[in-house]
User: What shape does this take?
Amino acid sequence: MKNFQQVDDNGYYGQFGGAYIPEVLYKTVENLKQQYLPIIQSESFLQEFHQLLSDYVGRPSPLYHARRMSEKYGCKLYLKREDLNHTGAHKINNAIGQVLLAKRMGKTRIIAETGAGQHGVATATVCALMNLPCRVYMGALDVQRQHVNVERMRMLGAEVFPVESGNKTLKDATNEAIRDWCCHPKDTFYIIGSTVGPHPYPDMVARLQSVISAEIKWQLLEKEGRNWPDYLMACVGGGSNAAGAMFHYLNDERVRLVLAEAGGLGVDTPQTAASMQIGTVGILHGSRIKVMQTEDGQIVEPYSISAGLDYPGAGPIHCNLYETGRAQVVPVNDDEALQAAFELTRLEGIIPALESSHALALLPKMHFRKDDIVVLNLSGRGDKDLETYLSHKEEIDYGKI
Ligand SMILES: *Cc1c(COP(=O)(O)O)cnc(C)c1O
Assistant: This one.
């Protein structure tokens, strides 16, 4: 059987991955490649990482048996409550891990890029905690659209750098961050917020987030007397929350993996972010993945109601899971995600992030057996999305809830 956890020596998962980087970064990335595993597997790292995850983030996050949702969908549904983490989502797990790694590698300056601002906020948070200077690149259009997160980052002491080139969104911010990294490779650590980017980032991020599936294993054993679910579900933007929730189950074929990507207004319209369904193989962010692009290789601007899923590609791990059939990937449209958000709110008293609502919207598409154990990764909370929810509340069909 294929090993879906393991990246090969050149940084590939099947045909996806690799490290397509400018020559000037070769030594820096090679150095990271040599050092990341020995450091993140060392006792001193693990001690500090887990201490912070417990006392600062509030881990372990609960595995919550959602009784009313279970009844509605005819299964035993557990929600992995990443929404309860400090800063409101799973991204903080990775930000803490990479900052601790940067410190151990002697780096004195942190850069990051952000689209919706969630990864920027997580990075700025940890940099405040660790007293490290932090610059966050963000498309000028996103700076306008995500003003509250910009203010959060500034309050935390980070410098937010608006990028005026291109479409002024995430891709342009990424280019600018890579340019900065090229100029300061010695002292600067580039924190990537998802399982994307050149090798070793996808593997590194997946491992740092794998605390999620490590917890699911012992929590299920405690609650169900067995440590695996029948189904594991998550949403995919770049793929980090899904990779974290799946990591320890990737090679366990008893566990069916079901992933939601953002359909936007529909995969057959130009307004979509369903890159695994409609993308073609190309290079984005230093990695060979499925990308939404024109025939001559121009990136197509993605669209989703959810800023965190609005990415024109998906990480190499996920592209490989999709291509090999190990994971089922289902597009979820804006209206389905909105309906799912209001449903969880009314049935369980939990307002989910719009991203996580895409995973929730998978539930009505499934055919469960009554005794199926389903774990759904609730990647974040919905406070940040309240305005979007309110502006669409007339469209919700309360009769279906
Ligand atoms: C950023 C974000 C996502 C999407 O990113 P992944 O790397 O695919 O997990 C999903 N959920 C929330 C709450 C987010 O903030």
User: Anything to note?
Assistant: The chain has 16 helices and 14 strands. The first helix runs from residue 26 to 40. The chain has a mean pLDDT of 97.
